[in-house]
Amino acid sequence: MNSSSRSLKVAIIGGGMFFDEIIGQSFKDFMRGGISGSLTSIGMSHLAPVVSGVEIEVCAVGTRSEKSGTAGRIVDWFSQEFPEQRIEACYGEAVWQDILTRHQPDVLFVATPDHVHAEPILAALTAGVDVVTEKPLCLSTRDADEIVDAAARLQRIVAVDMHKRYDPFVREMMVKAPEQYGLINRVRAVLEEPLEVSTEIFAWAEESNPFAYVGCHWLDVVHHYMNVKPVSVFATGQKTLLLHWDEHQKEIARRRGVDTASFKRQGPINTWDSMDVAVTYDNGMRGDYNNNWINPEEFEGAVNQEIELYGIYGRGMVDQQERGYREAIIGDGSRTRNPSFGGRIRHHGGHTEIFGYGKASIAAGLLAIIRRRILGESMDVLADTYPTAASQRDIVQVIEAASVVAEKNYECFQAGRGTPVTALLHSGGFDIHGA
Questions:
Q1: How far apart are CA 235 and CA 404, in angstroms?
Q2: CA–CA distance, 3 with 6 (Å, rounded to integer)
Q3: Residue 4 scores a pLDDT above 70
Q4: Contacts of 425 (CB under 8 A, 6+ apart)
């Protein structure tokens, strides 16, 4: 960091599913005008004057395979708008090590696959670098504990891109719920990703599952706004389509009138189609989380997402498909859009700027880093202002427990023994019962 110019050097690893639409475009906006313009969406506009002069500079983009050329494409994409900015495309199995050593950034933005979060986060913290990472924080409680401990011990920020926390519709409902709905007996949350995510976009789908990938968003919303702690986890899942992808793609191809050769993945994909997770919380509330990544591409929205609270005095529901923006276009069909996540404005100067809660979550992390590095504020003061690694520990614990329980229940079901397995959570991890 150059304290005289008040700037942050940011290195990015991984392309990320929403890189061009959300992550990359957000950083273009930050490079052009800083983060002040994004602070209203996170309730921090009072800090705009003191951070308005802080410059954001992307110094490097790293991805694993040079053959794919992803990092080079992203650098070229940045250079179209910022030709004077020197950004290096880097490649390697542990590309973050090279970037941390040679570029010495202030911030590492981690947009790698789910199972490749912990190692670069820990390496960055050891190097004295703050982190903003895509969700989930990691996939094991042990890794989460190591990250939380390192962040506290080294006094570094680890912010997690939990953008559903900043969805204005969801936030409105969650904030008013305690007073308006009374005690909440049950939460029902759905988030379904399109089939192309597990069969076309993510070559690493077998290293994760739909609950870890998107269920973490609703877990964060519930844990953050309701201040509850998970006590036990029950989970089941389905392995019908993806595990037999080589068989079912023929029928899908027939229905779409295409050749099976057009599919990127040809053989079996050993991961869950969908997962259904029931969490019991310390106040007796139940959370039902339903996630899949096989939603047909013909579905009207980019994703299907909804959350419903059942209280003793009332109830509330946010359904993305009912926000009121629908289109019917020849060749594209009937679709719902969600500009609240990543809307775009084209200014008179010709550049495009993004708005929405996808950008807000990234801004929250960067603001915390600026306040620590440049304004000298303490970690304790900043703790409630962004999605911290510590706030994700329980979420990772539920993700890990659900993965284990679902697998054991799947084995029991295949053996004709029903689904008897649950997990009891505790400070050290979780115990499996009924296996």
A1: 9
A2: 5
A3: no
A4: 230, 231, 232, 233, 397, 398, 401
Q: Give the model's confidence band at 2: pLDDT under 50 very low, under 70 low, under 90 confident, else very high.
A: very low
Kindly state whether residue 152 falls inside one of the protein's structural domains.
yes
CA torsion through residues 174, 177, 178, 183, sign: negative
Indicate whether 318 belongs to any domain: no
Tell me, what CATH number does 27's domain have? 3.40.50.720
Is residue 112 included in any domain, yes or no? Answer: yes
Domain membership of residue 45 as a residue range? 7-164+342-388
pLDDT tens digits, one per residue of 345-357: 988 777 889 999 9
pLDDT in tens, 279-299: 999 999 999 999 999 999 999
Task: Please indicate, yes or no, whether the overall pTM of this predicted structure exceeds 0.90.
Answer: yes
Split into its structural domains, the chain has a count of 1
